[in-house]
């Protein structure tokens, strides 16, 4: 595979990583593929190279990866048409759909057959902390590694289940709070730089492969409910022709042994069709979190609190109706097939 300099973009915090996913120079503009920063771009690039090369060959055009140091830069890149499609987590996909003209068209299928993944809270193996209750009771003495603010498993899910449900603000409860990638959080805990941090099961599997000695230094003290598999999002304003080509590629990819070998390092076995309805449970979770914060906000008057709660409840009722309709539609489609 040949390597060419990555085109400079005028967005903050971009890690310039140069590689071309195809040996030829296509007449069309390169397809730009955004990749969220679950770990360093130096580690991610070799995992993605073979897959992007296959995508390039299938589309008969160059495919350029876009790596950045945080999730927000990938969202902003889609907003300003600097990328054409991206792999996001559910929380960042929600931001891309709502603010960057994105649309979900597929979701990943886990190699181990799991229907999704789980958020974790981790500490050092020999830590006296053994539960969320221990963490919250000693928060003022602990350094906490929180996830990227646009991360589903690193921020949104623990933000609701661990903190909002317990009436705790992690930004003020701890001695110090740092926001980092999954990899950085895990390594910081293993190295004793952070006392407790968010993580997830997919990243734990990855850590056990690349840094088994560090993985052995970790202890899981909390696991979340199931999180839906990660979505693939394209710009809604892509041409129908290109969308069709992308559907054909993603929905069929993984059928051969060679493709399975390429997907294995990414911890996937293929891709399934999906839509923006995948985000409905995530939207519920975001609203539940906001509702808990409003209910506990002592700075609000009784009337202000009641009005805001009524507004959030109305939005939750609307989401519940949409979710029920989507589930009924899926059940009907499954029965028909």
Main features:
single chain; 337 residues; alpha/beta; D-Maltodextrin-Binding Protein, domain 2; Methane Monooxygenase Hydroxylase, Chain G, domain 1; 3 domains; six-stranded mixed sheet; five-stranded mixed sheet; 18% strand; disordered N terminus; Phosphnate-bd
Structure overview:
Residues 302-336 form a coiled coil. Belongs to the phosphate/phosphite/phosphonate binding protein family. There is one protein chain. This protein is an alpha/beta fold. The protein has three domains: 31-114 and 229-276, Periplasmic binding protein-like II (D-Maltodextrin-Binding Protein, domain 2, 3-Layer(aba) Sandwich); 116-227, D-Maltodextrin-Binding Protein, domain 2; 280-336, Methane Monooxygenase Hydroxylase, Chain G, domain 1. The protein is 46% helix and 18% strand. The chain is built from 13 helices and 13 strands. The strands form three sheets. It has a six-stranded mixed β-sheet, with helices on both faces. The chain has a five-stranded mixed β-sheet with strand order 8-7-9-6-10. It has a two-stranded antiparallel sheet with strand order 5-11. Helix 2 (71-79) runs parallel beside helix 3 and helix 12 (280-295) packs antiparallel against helix 13. The longest helix is centred in the last third of the chain and has 35 residues, at 302-336. It is globular and about 55 Å long. Residues 1-26 have low confidence and may be disordered.
């Amino acid at each position: 595979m040949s390597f060419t300099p990555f085109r400079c973009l005028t967005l903050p915090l971009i890690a310039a990583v140069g590689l071309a996913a195809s040996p030829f120079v296509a007449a069309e503009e390169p397809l730009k593929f955004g990749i969220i920063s679950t770990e360093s771009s130096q580690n991610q690039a070799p995992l993605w190279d073979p897959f992007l090369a296959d995508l390039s060959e299938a589309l008969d055009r160059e495919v350029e990866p876009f790596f950045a140091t945080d999730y927000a830069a990938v969202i902003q890149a889609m907003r300003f048409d600097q990328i054409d499609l991206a792999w996001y987590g559910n929380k960042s996909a929600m931001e891309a759909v709502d603010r960057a003209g994105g649309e979900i068209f597929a979701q990943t299928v886990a190699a181990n057959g799991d229907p999704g993944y789980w958020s974790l809270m981790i500490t050092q193996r020999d830590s006296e902390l053994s539960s969320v209750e221990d963490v919250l009771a000693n928060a003022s003495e602990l350094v906490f590694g929180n996830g990227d603010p646009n991360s589903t498993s690193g921020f949104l899910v623990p933000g609701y289940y661990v903190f909002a449900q317990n009436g705790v603000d992690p930004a003020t409860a701890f001695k110090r709070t740092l926001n980092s990638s999954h990899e950085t959080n895990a390594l910081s805990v293993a190295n004793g730089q952070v006392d407790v941090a968010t993580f997830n099961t997919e990243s734990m599997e990855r850590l056990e492969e690349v840094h088994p000695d560090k993985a052995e230094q970790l202890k899981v003290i909390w696991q979340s409910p199931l999180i839906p598999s990660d979505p693939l999002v394209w710009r809604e304003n892509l041409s129908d022709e290109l969308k069709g080509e992308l559907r054909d590629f993603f929905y069929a990819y993984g059928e051969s042994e060679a493709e399975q070998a390429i997907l294995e390092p990414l911890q996937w076995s293929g891709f399934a069709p999906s839509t923006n309805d995948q985000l409905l449970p995530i939207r519920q979770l975001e609203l539940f979190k906001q509702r808990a914060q409003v209910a506990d906000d002592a700075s609000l008057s009784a009337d202000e609190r009641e009005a805001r709660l009524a507004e959030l409840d109305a939005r939750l009722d609307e989401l519940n109706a949409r979710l029920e309709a989507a589930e009924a539609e899926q059940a009907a489609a499954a029965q028909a097939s």
